């Protein structure tokens, strides 16, 4: 158990050394890792050179060539063992997530639980990965579809879910027969090192895992670009800002690699006249302020019917004024720190822009919790005259813009009237309103919820969004298909050669149809 009274750097070091990570990988390196909790230096992590990165990708490719021949249920056993390691080290890894990202202990543990859940899901999947048998139009022919391992899967992850995103991709990729090369956020290399160590433990229990099957590349954007450009990597799953996704997507398109893009959101909830306002209030508070507004699915726009706006917004302002902001490790505060100064500056800039177009801002001021090196803020609720200015952008901070509507058509148009398309929700008890929102003419997002906020997805469903969110899907449902290549097989078990669509090509002039 980690001694939580020790300085944060010592706690991080204790956890990493206990997992067998060599001291020189976290000291004296060029990558300064700072805890958002108090601004203290946690570690100086080693990074990979360009040459080393390419060598490791090569080793991952070699590992894939072996791994693809192992039966899928046996591959599932490796993921089962990974899940066991995660269960065994849940407290330590959850703590490290809290130290490195500033999440509350409950959210840090929740992130590890999400990894465990997707491992369980992938183990079941390893006995499925079904193909199809399709009716053939030709006599004595069979048409089938099967799925094969695709190759090395590159994973580029964002700071805010530093380990769960890797597992959403990697657990599926391993059972699908792929190798994985991971470029974590440069803000969160320590949790990545810990996860790689847990993978290596699982691999050693399994025995005979090809070296390089799971490979870590610690470094910045330049290292990410090496992964994106490498022709030995047929699939790249990139999670982060839309700016990053645009660059990565264009580079992948140039070499016809498959992108799985999981980018920024600008998520809205519609509150109708039939909504249960008590439930709505609680859901909005978690959706907009949980994880200090630093989830891709954070609630950023509240679209409220004019008849309930007064009652809801006055209560919400009360919650915003009193919600506890503080150190997530030493208090029960519900709102922890922003990741860094750039996040705080971005928030202040967005609030100024909102004021400039007539927004009325409640909250949003900096709160001194642990001195000048850390950035805590009171979440901001902004009453807007319309969907203008910063409202159409994603600011990765706890800002909730409130808009008003008269008709449901108008509300849905506002909800869909932004470039992003990740998550959405409606608060209503009227079935017509709910079904209209879920219909083809309703929400245009990858996720549409009812009577809950847009965040906090379960792993069983496919996760991702449309438009500038990138179109990728990962995690549950049939998202596994993106980690395999599809092959169609036509098999002739007869003695003639009928051609599809009745085409004739008789080289012998006889009665054969080909
Ligand atoms: P970011 O875009 O700054 O960085 C994400 C990752 O991309 C990092 O590992 C970074 O090194 C890498 N990167 C940046 N530019 C690159 C390039 N040109 N080539 C290759 N790699 C590159 O994002 P962030 O600040 O870490 O995370 C916050 C953003 O991530 C928000 O926009 C949030 O909505 C989004 N996000 C989306 C999802 C989702 O599933 N849709 C999940 C989590 C976070």
From TrEMBL:
The active site is at 262. It is an enzyme of class 1 (oxidoreductase). Residues 31-488 form the Aldehyde dehydrogenase domain. CDD domains: ALDH_F7_AASADH (cd07130). Its EC number is 1.2.1.3. The keyword NAD applies. Gene3D superfamilies: Aldehyde Dehydrogenase, Chain A, domain 1 (3.40.605.10), Aldehyde Dehydrogenase, Chain A, domain 2 (3.40.309.10). It comes from the Bacteria. Belongs to the aldehyde dehydrogenase family. Homotetramer. This is aldehyde dehydrogenase (NAD(+)). It comes from Methylobacterium tarhaniae.
């Amino acid at each position: 158990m980690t001694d939580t009274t020790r300085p944060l750097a010592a706690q991080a070091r204790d956890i990493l050394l206990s997992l067998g990570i060599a001291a020189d990988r976290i000291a004296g390196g060029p990558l300064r890792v700072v805890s958002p909790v108090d601004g203290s230096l946690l570690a100086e992590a080693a990074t990979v050179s360009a040459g080393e990165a390419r060598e490791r990708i090569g080793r991952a490719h070699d590992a894939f060539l072996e791994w693809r021949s192992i039966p899928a249920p046996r591959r599932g056993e490796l993921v089962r063992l990974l899940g066991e390691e995660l269960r065994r080290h849940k407290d330590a890894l959850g703590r490290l997530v809290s130290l490195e990202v500033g999440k509350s202990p409950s959210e840090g543990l929740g992130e590890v639980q999400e990894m465990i859940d997707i491992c369980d899901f992938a183990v079941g999947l390893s006995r499925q990965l079904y193909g199809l048998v399709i009716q053939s139009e030709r006599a004595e022919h069979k048409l089938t579809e099967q799925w094969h391992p695709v190759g090395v899967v590159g994973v580029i992850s964002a700071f805010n879910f530093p380990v769960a995103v890797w597992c959403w991709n990697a657990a599926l990729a391993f059972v699908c027969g792929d190798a994985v090369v991971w470029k974590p956020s440069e803000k969160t290399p320590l949790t990545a090192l810990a996860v790689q160590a847990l993978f290596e433990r699982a691999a050693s229990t399994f025995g005979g895992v090809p070296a390089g099957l799971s490979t870590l590349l610690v470094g910045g954007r330049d290292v990410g670009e090496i992964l994106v450009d490498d022709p030995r990597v047929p699939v790249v799953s990139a999670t982060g800002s839309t700016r990053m996704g645009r660059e990565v997507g264009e580079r992948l398109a140039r070499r016809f690699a498959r992108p799985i893009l999981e980018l920024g959101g600008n998520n809205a909830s519609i509150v109708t006249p039939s909504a249960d306002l008590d439930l709505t209030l609680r859901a909005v508070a978690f959706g907009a302020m949980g994880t200090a507004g630093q989830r891709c699915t954070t609630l950023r726009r509240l679209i409220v019917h004019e008849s309930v706006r007064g009652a809801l917004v006055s209560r919400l302002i009360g919650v915003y004024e009193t919600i506890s902001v503080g150190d997530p490790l030493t208090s029960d505060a519900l709102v922890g720190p922003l990741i860094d100064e750039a996040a705080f500056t971005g928030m202040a800039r967005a609030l100024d822009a909102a004021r400039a177009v007539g927004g009325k801002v409640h909250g949003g001021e900096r709160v001194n919790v642990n001195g000048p090196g850390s950035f805590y803020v009171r979440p901001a609720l902004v009453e807007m005259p319309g969907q203008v200015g910063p409202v159409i952008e994603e600011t990765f901070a706890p800002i909730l813009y409130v808009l008003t509507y008269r008709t449901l058509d108008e509300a849905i148009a506002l909800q869909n009237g932004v470039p992003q398309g990740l998550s959405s929700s409606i608060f209503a008890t009227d079935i017509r309103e709910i079904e209209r929102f879920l219909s083809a003419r309703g929400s245009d997002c990858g996720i549409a919820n009812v009577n809950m906020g847009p965040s906090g997805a379960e792993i069983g469903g496919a996760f991702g969004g449309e438009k500038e969110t990138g179109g990728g899907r990962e995690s549950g449902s049939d998202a596994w298909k993106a980690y395999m290549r599809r092959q169609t097989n036509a098999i002739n078990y007869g003695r003639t050669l009928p051609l599809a669509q009745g085409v004739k090509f008789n080289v012998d002039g006889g009665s054969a149809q080909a």
